[in-house]
Amino acid sequence: MMGFALISIQIASAVENVRTLAETERAKEVAERDLDIGRQIQSGFLPNTLPSPSGWEIVMHFKAARQVAGDFYDFFKLGNRECIGIVIADVCDKGVGAALFMALIRSLIRAFAMQNFGPRHNFRETSPNRSAAPLLDTIKQTNNYIAETHSESGMFATLFFGVLDPESGVLNYINCGHEPPIAIGQGKIKEMLKPTGPAVGLMPNPEYKVQEVSLQPGDILFAFTDGVTDAQNEAGEFFTKARLLAILASHFDSAEALMDRIKIDL
Fold first, then answer.
1. Are 78 and 117 in contact (CB under 8 A)?
2. DSSP-derived 3-state class of residue 170
3. What radius of gyration, in Å, describes the C-alpha atoms of the chain?
4. What is the value of pTM for the model shown?
5. 3.20.20.10, 3.60.40.10, 3.30.470.20, 3.40.190.10: CATH of 45-265
6. DSSP structural state of residue 85
7. What is the pLDDT of residues 30-78, one digit of tens each?
8. Contacts of 244 by beta carbon, 8 Å cutoff, 6+ apart
9. Dihedral (C-alpha) 226, 256, 168, 194: value to the nearest 10 degrees?
10. Which GO terms describe its molecular function (predicted)?
């Protein structure tokens, strides 16, 4: 009887192991399916085409991580359709939740921007601040909607939103706690567009400021998320901010040449 009892326990243990293994495999399948959904959400909200204003070159590179994050970028025409909205952002969380929150922020920015920069808005008639007021309204409305409607989620995003007038080279912007985009020219770093307010969604009615930078012929504006500086090679070494700045301090004939160099180093 002892033998049967022992054999019975062994069989039960084996059955339980099989059951546990099956549950683990199912959990992996669910996790992979969630990752696929998150990636589809993320890629579906990225622009299919980039604007091509006369005399300007716009290039981008997006590499999705295995673990879905909330990094995204956007470009869209505004007002009298001569100016361009530029957005780059990084949602605080990971996974499907981050992808959904990214989609929400992207949609809010677009909707409020289209509303505030109406079809009759003429940037060159609003001198000297051009797009300052509608730009500020767009960020405030986006922030307050998230802070007041989704505060329990604890989600927020660092975000840079700029409006470029291609004719003058003037870029009005608000940096909501994001990695500073960097203006470079003549083989040196000219200016870092540092934060002018907190991340979007942290609290209602924070103070944001609009700043302005003038891009001259040959200048390049480089914007990125922290996934660049946090990238690791096969040896586990980080790319680092210092290495990025060293590259940006070199001379590049075009935005595409700069992008190609960074992709090689990554």
1. yes
2. strand
3. 24
4. 0.83
5. 3.60.40.10
6. E
7. 667 766 766 666 676 788 888 889 999 999 998 876 566 688 999 999 9
8. 224, 228, 229, 262
9. 20
10. phosphatase activity
